[in-house]
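Researcher: Here's my situation. A collaborator sent me these components and asked whether they could plausibly form a single complex. I don't have experimental data yet, so a predicted model of the whole assembly would be a useful starting point for our discussion.
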Amino acid sequence: MITTAGLTKRYGRITAVDGVDLAVAEGDRYGLLGPNGSGKTTLLRMLLGLVYATRGEITVLGRPVPRRAGEVLSQVGALVESPAAYGHLSGRGNLALFDAAGPGGPRRTRRTRIAEALDRVGLGGVDNRPVTAYSLGMRQRLGLAAALLRAPRLLVLDEPTNGLDPRGIREVREVLAELNRGGTTLLVSSHLLAEVDQLCTRVGVMDRGRLVVQADLASLRTPTGRVEVHTADPAGAAALLDGRVDARDADRLLVRHADAAELNAELVAAGIPVREIRAERHTLEEVVWEATTASADRVDRA
Amino acid sequence: MIGVELRKLARRPRTWVSIALLCGLPALVAVFLAATGIGPGPGEEPAFLSAVLSNGALFPAAALAIVLPLFLPVAVAVVAGDAVAGEAAGGTLRYLLLRPVGRTRLLVAKLVSMVVYVLAAVVLVAVTAYAIGVTLFPAEPTAVTSVSGVAMSTTSFTMRIVAAVGYVAVSMLGVGAIALFLSTLTDSALGATLGALAALVASQVLVTLDAAAAVSPYLPTRYWLAWIDLFREPIPWRDIQRGLGIQVVYVVVFLGAAWANFATRDVKS
């Protein structure tokens, strides 16, 4: 769906994106993570032909970008950085203008398309007030509706849940998951780990312009070699497993053990009641924390 | 895309406010003139105003002379300066390009919408001025005398007014092209507008400067008043032709520069 090879962008002496080899497969839910200023937005802009690469190759939907961006973009929906609209027009008016601007399908069905997109993002009942009167969350939904206008094969979304409340975030996540089930490939950038954790199946992590991790989310969540045990008799369990307990916190113990089932048998055999037991796994947060350095918006003393 | 740009132009309150102001200034002048009866001496600026006192049908020509030096170019510079930079600042530029709208197509659509704006503004100024002129002053549309003192037929006079409207509109294209070019350079619409106005003021200053006579034939404002020649008998075409030629050169050069810059630039806004 998207591949890049050695993609690099320099602004003067600053290298914003440095030798990125991105690979997004058809049907993926790809989450692009990274601290602020790590080059996520510049990378997405290059994929969409807004910013021209200093070096490297981009292929989107099997065609080279930016050379044949025109053919590619008509099948792509995008939200880059923040949504934007003409403030003096209504949400519908804005979508009508954007729809008319590109090769988007016949004029007859424009109303239906707009209504469908608005319904999808939860703005179906919006009135004719101008966009200037919209809240941040409404603008975000409108931006998303604009991206969905054309039933795109690929959705490129930069921080899609910006400005939404927890309920809105969940709604948007559900909309995206549904679209993905219908065959739309998702490329979502975010600095919110939870968002990517809950939506995506594959992640890329950017740090200072480089793509430092690119893997399936499941393969990143490897067992840590410890087992988490909740028991009604923590003292007894600690005595039994003496020397293998890494941490103890009220009725919760972290035990160094490769297999939860074996440990469970051992505890039960010793008559210790086990309330809950599971293998501890690496979290996305740990993976990202280890792979990245300080945020680019942090400026420390030398 | 051209249709989309025209719809945006028409639905923008600013378009109509600026045109109302453009029509309002000559109206204000007409009210003062009618109330006091004191006109400028013959040959003084603005042209045609002294003649209006005796024949209101000439007021469209006077109105063009009133808005031409400052009001009209300012309005054009605002519209053209905002064309790309305003979209960039508002963030809508990237969404237009992602639709996708080709960068060249977008620029052409912006140019067409600017031309339509200029034409609409000039035509409306002329039309409202005619209405005001025949209402406030004694009007004899059938007995208009030319600047050279020869009587003109109604048809001939109407043709000349139409030609003058066209010439004035074309005169604005140079400024528009400069503003459009600057608009692709910066994300600040105000910056682009002020830049174009700075170029305009510089040109106006140099035109009046004898020491700059060598460059004056190439300045965008040099032949702005040549349309007055349309009301002479016979019409001396030389300055009008040169004026049109100069505008074409400015439009070609600055649009070319705007295209070269816009088509290759990173859109980071």
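Model: Some features of this prediction you could bring to your collaborator: The interface with chain A takes residues 1, 3-4, 7-8, 11-13, 90-92, 94-102, 264, 266-268 of chain B (CB under 8 Å). The two ends of chain B are 21 Å apart (CA to CA).
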